[in-house]
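Suppose a colleague, Dr. K., hands you the sequence of a protein chain of 323 amino acids and asks what its three-dimensional shape might be. Before reaching for any lab equipment, you can write down a predicted structure in token form. Begin with the sequence itself:
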Amino acid sequence: MSILKSFDFFQKISVENLSKPTIIGSILSLSAISIMCFLLFREIYDFYTPTFVKDTIIHHDSDQLSKIHVNFNIHFYNMPCGLISVDQLDSMNNHRMDISDTLRKERYSRENVKISETVSSDLDDTVKAVENDEHCKVSGYVDIQKVSGNIHISHHAYRQLWQYIAHARPDKFKGLTLSHKAMSMNFGDYTHLKEVFARFNLEKDHVEFSRHNLLPNFQNKEKKNYDYFIKIIPYHLIDEEFDTTTVGYQYSLNFREREHNEDELHIITFNYDFSPITMRSIRKKKYFSHFLTNICAIVGGIFVIFSILNRTYLTCCDFGKNE
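The predicted structure, expressed as tokens, is then:
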């Protein structure tokens, strides 16, 4: 019992002894120590655990003329590389045809074996590729401005070749379709963005930024047109500790398959538009001065509360004795 009384922070003052430990005071003291330790450890844990605040804002981008990458990887099952033209058109009337400086075309044999990355649009080479049932994988990026527009894949740049094959080899022409699988697609500097995901606990949300093998797989033998509708949503990752802001781009995707008009070239169209709503994730900075203030508040607050409880108990006891 004497050992328990030694823990009393709220000793009773008496005439015989300036301070006198009590059982209830010791119990209150041990309770105060336990609660204080729990809150201190919780405060330390919170100090070293990042805090994130997510919200949405309407952000006016004053730099709409700047460009971002559209990164993609598309495999065409029934089309040689020499007939594929990647074009881009936007609402500012910027029109680029047969983009090749940032894209790579890889030739594949009928057996799905890579042949080379050397693509020729010469008539004889293209006809030979059609006869050998070659197919193609297109990968790389296209630069777009931050306005609405589309990226379309067809044969616009090789219309004469397309018409020649239609008349010279109608048997092979029937099998030329834009059936495809988009292996991946993302926007902006996604490689750098992946390095930031872990710091913002966004590893599970990466599919909203880049889809891998989750896009539709069209393997039709008939000629079809394909439309994709993409809404691009800017996402600002703000790190207050290092005073940095990383911009990524989430996107939503819808698509449809429609019948092809024989009088026109069949086409794949990726229609994109930028959302005025911007997502934000802020990694809050922790201040050591706030941490010390909270520690002092915990220690002082616990001591005061339990002092009041002890004094109330002793007052009630003295009042009972006097009665």
